[in-house]
Amino acid sequence: MNKKYNRILLKLSGEALLGKKEFGMDYEVLNQICDEVKKVYDMGIEIVIVIGAGNIWRGAQNHGLGIDRVSSDYIGMMGTIMNSIALQARFEAINIDTRVCSALEIPSVAESYIRRRAERHLKKGRIVICAAGTGNPYFTTDSAAALRSLELKCDVLLKATNVDGIYTADPKKDSTATRYEEVSFEEVLEKNLRVMDGTAIAQCRDNKMTIIVFQLMKENNIKSVVCGESIGTKVV
Question: Is the model's pLDDT at 137 over the cut of 80?
Answer without folding.
Answer: yes
